[in-house]
Amino acid sequence: MTGETMTTPILSVEELTDLVTAIFESRGMAPADARTVAGVVVAAERDNARSHGLQRMPGYVSSMDCGWVDARAEPRVEQRTPGLLAVDAGNGFAQVALARARDRLVGIAKQNGTAVLTIRNAHHFAALWPDVEPFAAAGFIALATVNSRSLMTAWGGTRKVLGTNPMAFACPRLGAPPLVWDQASSTMSQGDVLLHRAAGKRLPPGAGIDRAGQATTEPAAVLDGGALLPFAGVKGSSVAFMVEILSAAFGGGTFGFEDRSAALPGAVTSQSSQFLLLLDPAAAGETAFGARVEALLAAIAACGSQRLPGERRYAARQRAATAGIAVDAVVLDGLRAFCSTGAPRAPR
Ligand code: NDP
Questions:
Q1: Is the pTM of this model over 0.85?
Q2: How far is the CA of 193 from the centre of ligand 1 (A)?
């Protein structure tokens, strides 16, 4: 049985976070790191960004169990220049690497007005907004990119070569949660294709091509040797290219087409690289920054725009805080089973 029913279990955000944390810990991850990665999975479910929520857990688990991801990885943070931190994630999850670098990065941004972070040798299997939103909540403008294994074609191509490479932007606001947008370079993220397949739904036209390079609306044809299409044609392709350059070439990481997950059964996560830029409006001497942002948003509201990016998620977050998160009973059983089938935790 799948899908929400009258008897669908409801968990609080904290209960679900504890459960998902326990799964990562069962694979040998240190408790704080497990909570960091669990936090982004649950945040996606909480914010109704389900393409990167609980449906990803089997992929996280199998990637750790088959040795593709090192759950015990210890990231190495290196300051390359006064404004540039480079992290080797040690084949662990990118969110753990970001957590290790966060305080130093903020310190650099406060001192210099700008700070750049690169993360290589990592796995990013999540939405990107959880990486940037906290920085904007702390007063910084944040821009992040991450590349994924190749899932998308490029500039009129007929086979996958680029990642679905998302880009996220977060900007502080006066008296309101940050404005955050986060979007894949493809018309649709692979996670949404998986959700369509699970629901037996066809994709919208223009989302993908099959292994012969022909347009298809069949999720399985895209996933089985086909490719996603970039958003807005050549424009999305150019953005994905830029993301590969910023994330992988600049940071010394792996391009999407170089990912070798297909050679290892159970390897589901992408070997990713990440780029993050922080700007401090205060350090730049822009005392009117907040008011300027609000003036632009007021003008946008006046043009008839119905909502801002991120507002749908914030509304879902509020609902989850009071009503909890509905988790399909079969999915919940699967999560609990992961805890009991985990490899014994090794001493750290
Ligand atoms: P969507 O197309 O669902 O949304 C893109 C952005 O547009 C969001 O910020 C969304 O805000 C905003 N938006 C959507 N509709 C409106 C509207 N009517 N008015 C104003 N704003 C709107 O995202 P994608 O499918 O492109 O990507 C989904 C996720 O997949 C992302 O979180 C991305 O990071 C992730 N991803 C991760 C990858 C990885 O390798 N880790 C690879 C590719 C994608 P809101 O959320 O409020 O609706």
A1: yes
A2: 13
CA-nearest residue, atom 23 of ligand 1: 183
Q: How far is CA 136 from CA 35, 36, 100, 139, 165, in A?
A: 21, 18, 18, 5, 21
> Residues with Cβ < 8 Å from 151, sequence gap 6 or more?
160, 162, 163, 164, 186, 190, 227, 228, 256
- What are the tokens at 49? 């960004």
Q: Does domain 3-186+230-338 have CATH number 3.40.50.460?
A: no
Atom 16, ligand 1: residue with shortest CA distance = 309
Measured torsion, CA atoms of residues 229, 191, 137, 277, in degrees rounded to the nearest 10: -50
What ligand 1 atom has the least distance to the C-alpha of 187?
26
In whole angstroms, what is the distance from residue 270 CA to residue 190 CA? Answer: 12
The pLDDT of residue 5? 53
> Lowest-confidence range among 6-10, 101-105, 200-204?
6-10
pLDDT at 7 over 90: no
Name the residue with the closest Cα to ligand 1, atom 35: 127
What atom of ligand 1 comes closest to residue 313's alpha carbon? 47
Q: How far is CA 115 from the centre of its chain?
A: 21
Task: Report the C-alpha gap between 125 and 249 in whole angstroms.
Answer: 20
DSSP bridge pairs for 123: 93, 271
Q: Is 181 helix (H, G, I), strand (E, B) or coil?
A: strand
* DSSP letter, residue 159: S
